[in-house]
């Protein structure tokens, strides 16, 4: 039985992917700080198929223990899906510094922790892969979402580096880049850019792309036709034009 570890598995995209992989017959390790949704899914599928680990990606030692515990149970680790993430809209100077630090700790450092700690287990499995959640916001710094966008640009760059480095270990590393997704993380937040771009994707839409990425040779998987078109024109334009487009989308 193939196995996957999913961080941020208690809600949104992480939960949708966990449900999908369980339906596909995988053994799923669900990592999250929120225990109740994990236990609910474990009760449905059974502890032999759904392994629950209440842990934060920012806590190195408990995280290492969680990976070791899951590998002891599964006997293998085929895929690491780094989905844990935080988002906060607002003018940079008005968002507390502690919140900015938290976003970076989870989105960037937490993802790095997971890759480093999972490597010894992934290395043992031929054709293993790492799937990182990036974002359409990684394309260009988004006003009102600066730290989040920067964290996702970091994920993109880190993914590109590991994709090259870990090829020697037969580990394929890629990221998935959706625009805004209708999840609890986005719900209730107000931002000009959301009105311009819309929130047109569900967690299930992205989960389907994650499933397809299990067989993808790409480094970046861009989600939605509108984002692919936007990215194409972005790649053709020069920096001043990109800046004006972003100002229009965000209302700055």
Write the layout of secondary structure elements.
Elements: E1 3-7, H1 12-23, E2 27-32, H2 35-45, E3 50-54, H3 60-74, E4 79-82, H4 97-122, E5 128-133, H5 146-165, E6 171-177, E7 181-182, H6 192-197, E8 201-202, H7 203-213, E9 220-222, H8 225-236, H9 239-250
Parallel strand pairs: 1-2, 1-4, 2-3, 4-5, 5-6, 6-9, 7-8
Written description of the protein model:
With 252 residues, this protein is an alpha/beta fold. It has a single domain, classed as NAD(P)-binding Rossmann-like Domain (Rossmann fold, 3-Layer(aba) Sandwich), CATH 3.40.50.720. The chain is 50% helix and 16% strand. It contains nine helices and nine strands. The strands form two sheets. It has a seven-stranded parallel beta sheet, with helices on both faces. It has a two-stranded parallel sheet with strand order 7-8. Helix 4 (97-122) links the parallel strand 4 (79-82) and strand 5 (128-133). The longest helix has 26 residues, at 97-122. It is globular and about 55 Å long. The protein starts with a strand and ends with a helix. The mean pLDDT is 89.
Keywords:
9 helices; alpha/beta; 252 residues; Rossmann fold; single chain; seven-stranded parallel β-sheet; two-stranded parallel sheet; 9 strands; 16% strand
Tell me the CATH architecture. 3-Layer(aba) Sandwich
Order of helices and strands: EHEHEHEHEHEEHEHEHH
Q: Round the mean pLDDT to the nearest integer and report it.
A: 89
For the biggest sheet, the summary is: 7 strands, parallel
Beta strands, count: 9
> Into which percentage range does the β-strand content fall?
15-25%
Radius of gyration from CA coordinates: 18 Å
Name of the CATH first level: Alpha Beta
- Residue share in helix: 40-55%
CATH topology type: Rossmann fold
CATH H-level homologous superfamily name = NAD(P)-binding Rossmann-like Domain
Weakly predicted, low-confidence segments = none
Any idea what the shape is?
globular
């Amino acid at each position: 039985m193939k196995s996957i570890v999913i961080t941020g598995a208690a809600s949104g995209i992480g939960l949708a992917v966990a449900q999908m992989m369980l339906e596909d017959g995988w053994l799923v390790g669900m990592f999250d700080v929120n225990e109740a949704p994990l236990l609910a899914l474990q009760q449905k599928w059974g502890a032999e198929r759904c392994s629950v680990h209440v842990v934060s990606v920012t806590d190195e030692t408990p995280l290492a223990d969680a990976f070791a515990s899951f590998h002891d149970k599964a006997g293998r680790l085929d895929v690491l899906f780094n989905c844990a993430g935080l988002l906060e809209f607002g003018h940079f100077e008005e968002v507390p510094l502690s919140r900015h630090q938290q976003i970076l700790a989870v989105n960037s450092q937490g993802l790095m922790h997971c890759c480093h700690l999972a490597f010894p287990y992934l290395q043992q499995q031929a054709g293993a892969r790492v799937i990182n959640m990036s974002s359409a916001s990684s394309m260009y710094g988004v006003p009102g979402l600066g730290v989040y966008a920067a964290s996702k640009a970091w994920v993109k760059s880190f993914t590109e580096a590991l994709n090259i480095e870990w090829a020697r270990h037969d580990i394929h590393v890629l990221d998935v880049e959706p625009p805004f997704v209708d999840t609890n993380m986005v719900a209730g937040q107000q931002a000009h850019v959301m009105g311009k771009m819309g929130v047109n994707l569900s967690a299930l839409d992205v989960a389907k792309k994650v499933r397809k990425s299990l067989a993808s040779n790409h480094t970046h998987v861009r989600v939605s036709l509108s984002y692919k078109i936007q990215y194409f024109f972005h790649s053709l334009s020069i920096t001043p034009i990109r800046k004006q487009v972003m100002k229009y989308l965000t209302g700055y």
